From TrEMBL:
Organism: Saccostrea echinata
Gene designation per UniProt: ND2
Magnesium recorded as keyword: no
Catalytic reactions on record: a ubiquinone + NADH + 5 H(+)(in) = a ubiquinol + NAD(+) + 4 H(+)(out)
UniProt name for this protein: NADH-ubiquinone oxidoreductase chain 2
Domain (NADH:quinone oxidoreductase/Mrp antiporter transmembrane): residue spans on this chain: 90-286
Amino acid sequence: MYYSLAGMLFMMLGVYFALLVNFVTSVFWVWVAMDLSTIFLVPFLCCGMSLTGMYQWYKGSATYFVVQFMGSASVLYSGLLLWEPSFGGMGLMFLATGFILKLGLFPLHFWVPRAFVNFHYPGIYLTGVIQKFILILAMPFAEADMAEHVNELMVLSAVASVLYGPIAMFNCTNIKTFLSYSSVNNTGLLVICLSVSKSVFMFYAVCYSMSMLFLVLILSFCMSDTIKQMGATLPNFYFSGFLFMSLSFAGFPPLTDFCAKFVVVASCAEYLMWFCVMAVLASSVINLLVWIWFSVMIIRAMPVEDSFEPTFEDLITNFGCILWNVAGGMVLMLFY
């Protein structure tokens, strides 16, 4: 219990300093806030909030710690270069590279699967969803006075991530590795959303965070390493919630994630960002095939009968998953 409370405290401090990044105006203080956020999140990722009995999180935390500090060092070095106007272009490049590395965008995504496979599910949700939202809002290309070529570099990295993520998901048998490449894909989508407007970004961020929350809750119950093991341990009771979640991530209308991606495509088309439109559409087709394959693998491994008796929390989770994807999607279609 002591480690659980300590972990929660460190988690809240990490999120607090990550939020602080969006309110500072100096590159130096951006670096300070990001480093403090990393320092306080590492104990949360390593603490005794054990859900599996394994202690592989230390390997993931070490990878996460080193990469995040490399990204922060790049941001700090960019601040030093920006002091000298003649090195302004190079400084902006280091600033963009630092954020691309910290967010795990292609081609600097190499650390994401290595870290995720050793994290617990709360750590995956925090580092792969919550913290990325905050860091994306602090990205330099959101500022109007940034150099055009830096903006293009970050958008290009986001587009590559949108296309690469679902392709890499096809080669995954480990669930956490599967989630890591899904995170790369959706991080790219979030960066594209921010390049359009903050309102589109916030809309997609809310939809994605809620969908991932329900998926992580279901996966936390199974506590399996591989997709086949998840199918063997997933109770029949959770099948309906999991099925609607998979169909939503696959992009079937009128479910919530279909509506979210439709808004992204429509917004990019409105701003004549046709390259992004084609990338998101191609990514959606690949995602459709990936999630159908994922669902079929789970269904084939599920037991015919099980003796699982759902608790009240299980009922709420499963019903909430169905309600979020079905009713949420219909409501979004009515208002868009």
